[in-house]
UniProtKB/TrEMBL annotation:
It comes from candidate division GN15 bacterium. This is Exonuclease domain-containing protein. GO terms for molecular function: 3'-5' exonuclease activity; DNA binding; DNA-directed DNA polymerase activity. PROSITE patterns: WYL (PS52050). InterPro entries: DnaQ, Ribonucl_H, RNaseH-like_sf, RNaseH_sf, WYL_dom. One of its GO terms (cellular component) is cytosol. It comes from the Bacteria. One of its GO terms (biological process) is DNA replication proofreading. Residues 15-183 form the Exonuclease domain. Pfam families: RNase_T, WYL.
Amino acid sequence: MSEQFPVPAYLSGVTFVAFDTETTGLFAATNNIVEVGAVRFRLGQDNAETFQELVNPGRRIPADAIRVHGITDEMVALAEPAGPVLERFISFCRPESVLISHHAPFDISFIGCELNRAGLSFGDNPILDTIDIYRRLFPGLYSYSLLSLVTHFGISKSQEHRALSDAVFVRSLFERAAALFPSAGDLASLLAGFTAHRMNEWSGEKVDLPDTYSDLKLALDTKQCLEIIYESPVRGSETRRIWPERIYAQGQSIYVTAFCEKASAERTFRLDRIVDFKLLRADREP
């Protein structure tokens, strides 16, 4: 049973979904989700419904990421890819819910990129960030990390760093903070008092490439292979053969998602790091 706090009357009928993701790395455009967890609840009620699914990222999970969340390649081997999992997550959230995350831009960026890759879209649910809420309500704390907050407020002394357990922490933090929300008002005024995000903040935009990328556009349209020289910030210059699948803009950058023969899996490449490319014969499908 969760600790009970006063609930503003105008929030008593609102459905909230606290959610979290675990990933292969820190940058959404070139990494993937490995787990999604969520808790659907109403303030002042003990009952809640949960969502937790592993996701097969289609790539090896780096050792640094495994050290954080403990999710291994073996654990996700039989899991579905992000598309079907996110379809079920969208259904779980429901259109009328207010979503809550800790460090929301991080989770939104990963879910948004995975939605782009799968050709899916999310609803217009507002998304609140418990970091933003706690910085406004409890200024001057030493740290606003999830572990620091749950430790400071006596919720837990440790963090498993799995998606569902972190989502449960987010729920607990939100319930505690809600006791300090204005007692009079409505949901719209409450949302206006915080930074309310939307999932479409990270929806990729279709782009029209200039003529200098005509071979890249041809490879995409006709399902042909490109040989590229890619400047990786980690591995330096390397030659790869890729089968482009989609091109989209995210912020100020343009990305190419493609099947990479070297990785034998889908990968995302930043266009400005492709320093050279040539079209190859379409002698086989990836």
